[in-house]
Amino acid sequence: VLAHDHVVRHWLGPVSIAAGAVSFERSVPMTPAQAAKGLSVAAFVQDTRSAEVLQAVATGPCRAA
Q: What is the value of pTM for the model shown?
């Protein structure tokens, strides 16, 4: 049982950026029980040379489709 906030349950990437742009779409299966827990998605852009995180974003709670 995980009792921590913001636990990574699924990791996708890295995704390469070509010519300063990227388009990335992925569906992640989620059960209604998981959706009820308020799971969300986070993404970040990181400089591959320095490992500096340049930007990070997160969604609100996800819904099961």
A: 0.65
Show the beta-strand stretches assigned E in 2-59.
42-46, 53-58
Distance CA 65, CA 31 (A): 9
Number of Cβ within 10 Å of residue 11's Cβ equals 6
Amino acid at 39: L
**From the CA atom positions of the chain, what is the Rg in Å?**
14
Q: What is the pLDDT of residues 7-55, one digit of tens each?
A: 788 888 888 888 878 888 888 788 888 778 878 888 888 888 999 999 9
Cα torsion through 26, 29, 32, 33, rounded to 10: -120
Q: How many CA atoms lie within 13 A of 40 on its CB side?
A: 10
